[in-house]
Amino acid sequence: MGVSAIQIGNLLDRLNNTIQKELHVKKTGIIKSFDKALKQSKQHANILANTQVIASSLEINDTEELYEHGRMFIVSGVDYISFVNVRGTVVARGHSEFRFGDNLSNYPFIQAALKQQSNSLITNFDKSTYFLSLVPVF
Fold first, then answer.
1. Radius of gyration of the chain, Cα coordinates, nearest whole angstrom
2. DSSP-assigned states of every residue in the chain
3. Distance between CA atoms of 19 and 6, rounded to whole angstroms?
4. Are 87 and 105 within 8 A, CB to CB?
């Protein structure tokens, strides 16, 4: 009993279709997970940006107060929080108490935030890949 080239071709086509369907399902799941993470990131950023103590602390460069508020979110599963002043200089990081003073204004997404534009994205930043949400503080 032999297997014809047509049968092999049909088998390969079915296998390819099955693989494509499985990839689509996995891709859709990953996209949904990313969308959920970006949404949560944006919610956290909006909460912080709309807190009066954050605005006041940024105005006077109160590193300690900003670190403490950022740290509250770090313990709730957020990995990275930076508070940046209007010149693009990091005033505080919620994930690293003594790491501040560097300027991030050379990043396009920071430049947009400094122009009062909110943004959420996935990007390589600070030696890692992050879901970032940038929200201006008024």
1. 23
2. ----HHHHHHHHHHHHHHHHHHHHHHHHHHHHHHHHHHHHHHHHHHHHHT-HHHHHHHHTT-HHHHHHHHHHHHTTT----EEE-TTSBEEEETT-TT----B-TTSHHHHHHHTT--EEEEEEETTEEEEEEE----
3. 20
4. yes
Q: 121 is written with which tokens? A: 């994205």
pLDDT per position as a tens digit, 66-121: 999 888 888 777 888 899 999 999 999 988 889 999 999 999 989 998 998 888 88
- Give pTM, 2 decimals: 0.73
The phi, psi pair for 117, rounded to 5°, reads -110, 125
Give the Å distances, CA to CA, from 75 to 27, 81, 95, 104: 30, 11, 9, 24
Separation CA 24–CA 28 (nearest Å): 6
Rounded to an integer, what distance in angstroms lies between the CA atom of residue 37 and that of residue 23? Answer: 21
